[in-house]
Specification:
7 strands, binds zinc ion, globular, alpha/beta, single chain
Length: 237
């Protein structure tokens, strides 16, 4: 059983979008894991082999229990019954309580397709008559990373990663083939600054939404429940 499973299209997506959240969960003693769907073979920079080495170094920095790769076609991820079953089997292996998926919108088609694919695969994983050789399992919840998205969708919640931010950057730095001297990556649009500065500014922006230094934003299709309204955090003024 895994508490938190982050599923993403490409190696390094997880570090950029929810690395701080994974580090924070690990520090709490929760079990975390990463499932990368492709090997990044069509990426402009670095070979798939280099990225594999970088990804395992980054996994160590994040403190995850396991990192698997499904070797789906890079830039060609589809959400069809065959692929849903492949992803559902992986979900049944990990048995996560919460799954972190990409944002429902995305600049890269793989990101957008992966978001829906992950939701559908979580559902399919709970169907007893699909892949009958592995026991069925359905995660409780799927949350979507919103970091770097410019849809101006208000996050459902922001995770405070003030104490985890530098370690998140350390995980991103493991991808030298991708980011050494880079100004742009994944969903991050370039603004003329080094990539690390852009990542810091985004994290600081999401931090201000919860009156903290750094944050990572998430969207859920469900409403969050509150039991004690008197303990609500984040000051209005
Ligand atoms: Zn990506």
């Amino acid at each position: 059983m895994i508490d938190l499973l982050a599923i993403a299209a490409h190696r390094d997506d997880v570090e950029l979008t929810c690395g701080g959240t994974l580090i924070k969960a690990t520090k709490r003693g929760q079990k975390t894991a990463i499932l990368d769907l492709t090997q990044g073979e069509t990426g402009t920079r670095g070979s798939a082999q280099t990225r594999a080495t970088e990804a395992s170094r980054a996994a160590e920095v994040l403190g995850v229990e396991a990192r698997e790769n499904l070797s789906l076609p890079d830039s060609g991820i589809v959400n069809d019954p065959t692929t849903r079953e492949v992803v559902a089997r992986a979900i049944r292996r990990f048995r996560p309580t919460i799954v972190i998926a990409p944002a429902l919108e995305g600049r890269h088609p793989d990101h957008r397709v992966t978001a829906q694919l992950v939701r559908d695969a979580c559902f399919v994983a709970g169907l007893a008559k699909v892949a009958t050789d592995v026991p069925k399992f359905r995660p409780r919840k799927v949350v979507h990373c919103l970091t770097y998205r410019q849809d101006f969708l208000r996050p459902t919640f922001v995770v405070d990663i003030t104490d985890e931010f530098e370690q998140k950057l350390q995980a991103v730095r493991c991808y030298e083939s991708q980011f050494d001297g880079a100004m742009q990556a994944g969903e991050v649009y370039p603004n003329g600054e080094p990539l690390e500065d852009v990542i810091r500014h985004y994290a600081a922006y999401y931090g201000t939404l919860i009156r903290r230094q750094y944050g990572e934003p998430y969207f859920t299709t469900e409403t969050m429940r509150v039991d004690d309204i008197a303990t609500l955090e984040v000051s209005t003024f």
